[in-house]
Design a protein that fits this description.
The chain is of the alpha/beta class. It contains 10 helices and 13 strands. The strands form 4 sheets. A 6-stranded parallel β-sheet has the order 3-2-1-4-5-6, sandwiched between helices. A 3-stranded mixed β-sheet has the order 8-10-12.
Length: 297
């Protein structure tokens, strides 16, 4: 039977892709957006085949009315506490009020469950919402995709195209980092939304690649040897992040503050996805490391 999936955050990069993948799989897709949403973004969703409803996202009853016939609600919202905690609570409460059986929260990141609290502000916001959803009657499934592969294009310390350098912390030149493209994440999320047997937590990684492997791939693609170097110890990096955060109080109101970017990097070298669910669904063509790097080198 055709399922109805409601998506919040559908106008974002990931949310838009999730809607596309759901439509491709024959689902009825409903997207809820604010009245301040760019009309062009709404038109793009409609062209994909989604039904778009403009509602007051502060109104739980309005959310519940849109959730009335949904089999699953996907939250692909992004933001700080007012979004990841407060808005998601309203979306969840609306889904529960409407009797929706399943919910996929906006946990599209590294699996933070085994990381200590306090090391990553944005992960801690997700932890707070996790406690709320796990006390609710709805069945939740979180998709942990590691880091979005896009960051490899942005001249981070891991791969800096301007400086032609590849960096790592500690003794982790061979430490494999978890990356997944947005398209692969969206495909997997669509499958989860349509799978009533999906478990609570699902780890994926389109590719797992170490700094040494990045070095080899870059050399194979370009013929150039980038500088491979240790940036600092993990302990020194953690202290640097703490000082950076303390010295910039305004960063607490920025989604990707400098200290938060450092926290993401630190988490990538602190935990790995060891229980991959990549093979759970057939038909997803996972983009591997060297093929992805080729797209921008």
């Amino acid at each position: 039977m055709e399922k109805t999936i409601l998506v919040a955050g559908a106008t974002g990069n990931l949310g838009n892709r999730i809607c596309r993948e759901l439509v491709k799989r024959g689902a009825t897709v409903k997207a809820i957006v604010r009245d301040s949403t760019d009309t062009d973004k709404i038109e793009i969703l409609k062209e994909l085949g989604a039904e778009v409803s403009i509602i007051d996202l502060n109104d739980v009853n309005a959310i519940a009315a849109e959730c009335a016939d949904a089999d699953c609600v996907i939250s692909a919202v992004a933001g700080l506490g007012d979004v990841i905690i407060d808005l998601q609570k309203r979306i969840l409460d609306g889904a529960i009020k409407a009797g929706v059986p399943r919910f996929i929260p906006s946990d599209f990141c590294t699996d933070y469950n085994n990381l200590p609290e306090g090391e990553n502000r944005n992960f801690d916001l997700r932890r707070t919402f996790k406690k709320y959803i796990d006390q609710s009657p709805i069945r939740a499934s979180s998709v942990f995709n590691g880091c979005f592969a896009d960051i490899l294009k942005y001249n981070t310390p891991i791969l800096n195209l301007k400086d032609k350098s590849i960096g790592y912390w500690g003794d982790k030149a061979d430490w494999k980092l978890d990356f997944t493209t947005m398209d692969n994440t969206a495909s997997f999320t669509a499958e989860i939304a349509l799978d009533d047997s999906a478990p609570r937590d699902l780890q994926i990684a389109g590719f797992q690649i170490s700094p040494n492997m990045i070095f080899d791939d870059v050399k194979e693609i370009t013929g150039q040897e980038f500088k491979l170097h240790q940036i600092a110890t993990l302990e020194d990096f953690a202290e640097y992040i703490r000082k950076q955060r303390a010295d910039n109080p305004a960063g607490e109101n920025e989604l990707y503050a400098k200290f938060q970017q450092g926290q993401y990097m630190y988490s990538m070298f602190s935990t790995q996805h060891n229980n991959l669910e990549n093979n759970r669904y057939k038909g997803i063509s996972w983009t591997i490391g060297i093929d992805y790097i080729k797209t921008f080198l």
